[in-house]
Design goal:
The chain is an alpha/beta fold and 180 residues long. Helix content is 44%, strand content 16%. It is globular and about 60 Å long. It contains six helices and five strands; from the N terminus they run βαβαβαβαβαα. It has a five-stranded parallel beta sheet with strand order 3-2-1-4-5, sandwiched between helices. It binds 4'-phosphopantetheine. The site of 4'-phosphopantetheine has 12 residues, from strand 1, helix 3 and helix 4.
């Protein structure tokens, strides 16, 4: 039995991630999708929220497990002796340098941790979580970017967070009048 791990921030999961998950699920007996933390990034959704989105988005795929881990991927890989390989999606050459660095760092930290890359499908090469968040903040149409079952949760959190951030900024620079 071959098991792959698909790690990421998934803040939130996009149709691009889902494309990689579905294709990996055909190649491996099991795919463990694990929500990890990049300590240099700031996130819009909590880890439980990101896991819930992933669970909803992959509900129809039988050989998927969703997990999260607060630590190094190499250490998670070590704990989970059932996992054989890391799967990463590559959208464009711009992803390559960073992913190449991560693959070698993970292998250096844990010699068992080999990475294989799956090229993103053409219709998702431009989709990223940060682009999705911008569209959602302005209440734009998410249908081509994010699974439909999680549109409303993403839209409602990001539009209200954005409204609150704008209100705070306006209050701080004095452009907000009393009562607004
Ligand atoms: O979706 P992202 O943000 O590109 O995912 C990056 C992520 C979270 C997979 C990466 O930052 C990660 O593996 N974080 C866990 C900590 C770690 O192992 N970092 C060193 C790998 S170079």
């Amino acid at each position: 039995m071959k098991t792959a791990i698909y790690p990421g921030s998934f803040d939130p999961v996009t149709n691009g991630h889902l494309d990689i998950i579905k294709r990996a699920a055909k190649m491996f007996d099991k795919v463990v999708v694990v929500v990890l933390i990049n300590p240099l990034k700031s996130y819009s959704f909590t880890i439980p929220e990101r896991c819930e989105f992933l669970k909803k988005a992959t509900a129809e795929i039988p050989n998927i497990e969703i997990d999260s881990y607060d630590g190094l991927l190499a250490d998670y890989f070590n704990i989970r002796q059932d996992i054989d390989v890391i799967v990463k999606g590559l959208r464009a050459t711009s992803d390559f340098e960073y992913e190449f660095q991560m693959a070698h760092t993970n292998k250096d930290l844990n010699h068992r941790a080999e990475t294989v890359f799956i090229p993103a499908s053409l219709n998702t090469t431009f989709v990223s979580s940060s682009m999705v968040k911008q569209v959602a903040m302005f209440d734009g149409d998410l249908k081509n970017y994010v699974p439909a079952c999680i549109h409303e949760q993403i839209r409602s959190k990001l539009t209200s967070d954005f409204a609150e951030a704008k209100r705070k900024a306006a209050a701080a620079d004095g452009s907000l009048r009393k009562g607004q």
